[in-house]
Amino acid sequence: MTTPIPAAGTVPWRRRRGQLEVALVHRPKYDDWSWAKGKLDPDEEWPVAAVRETHEETALAVGLGRPLPGAEYTVLDGTGQPATKEVRYWAAEATSPAGPLENEIDEVRWLDVIAASDRLDYARDRDQLRALVRADKAGTLTTWPLALVRHAHAVGRGSWHEDDRLRPLDAAGQERAAVIAPVLTAYGIKRLVSSPSLRCTDTLRPFAAQLAVALRTKDGLSEEGYAAEPGRAVRHLERLVERGAPAALCSHGPVLPALLTALLALVAPDEPDADHVAAALRAAARDKMAKGEVLVAHLVGTGATARVVAVERHLPRS
């Protein structure tokens, strides 16, 4: 069985005079209307490709919101043979006006959802539109991301004879840290909180340097701080939920289950995807997340009204 061709895209949305609109693209080569999407570059992460392709095809700057249903369909590969194309989609609020078009797209058109449904050429594209409309009606289209990160692979404890808090990332961990940076960028992360242990701060440092944002360290997120006073780690998470700004928090395997359990408590049982979201958080807590994993929780509201409506797990490639 051949590996599916991976692709990623978005459904860009905005409100105009109180009405929800989405952006469709026209490809003159196929004379069709669809969503902005494209194939992943070699070793590119799905969310990074979604943002890149959206900007290349629409000249829109977007930040990824909640994931939408994907699509699989048959295309011809480079040799003319049939192959499966797998596309992952996200809702993406447009954060700036579009610039000039430069690639294979000759028109971008903002339409209300009824006109967009009529204009789309492929029935499969209406799956994403329906999901976006359902989220809008439920009040869960406008979300903000909270990313939990387990530090990337570090030098082994057995070969490190100094203070464990100074144990650095190994070569594979450094490579993963460089990959994590554009993933966090795709979700518009602006605030960084980390255990002060070097393996955690160095996991987020490439992103902090890229965006020139402060990297705040909290002793309560370290293994030592958690062992001494377990409740401090959850309080740091709760403060981020109260703030409601796109944020990433980096910690350790022994600490993360408590943080994930705190997020699980924010899953409202009446949400349409509650079972799926809860299962993802429970699995991540059971596994203590993989080293170098980024788990993105999409929340609506802040503080006491906050609730988790979607979860994504971005694991390092084996």
TrEMBL record:
Matching Pfam families: His_Phos_1, NUDIX
Keyword Hydrolase part of the UniProt annotation: yes
Taxonomy, superkingdom: Bacteria
Biological process (GO), any one: ATP biosynthetic process
GO MF: bis(5'-nucleosyl)-tetraphosphatase (asymmetrical) activity
InterPro entries named among the record's database cross-references: His_Pase_superF_clade-1 (IPR013078), His_PPase_superfam (IPR029033), NUDIX_hydrolase-like_dom_sf (IPR015797), NUDIX_hydrolase_dom (IPR000086), Nudix_hydrolase_domain (IPR051325)
Keyword Cell cycle attributed: no
Entry keyword set: Hydrolase
Domain Nudix hydrolase, residue spans: 3-133
Protein name: NUDIX hydrolase
Organism: Pedococcus bigeumensis
Taxonomy of the source species: Bacteria, Bacillati, Actinomycetota, Actinomycetes, Micrococcales
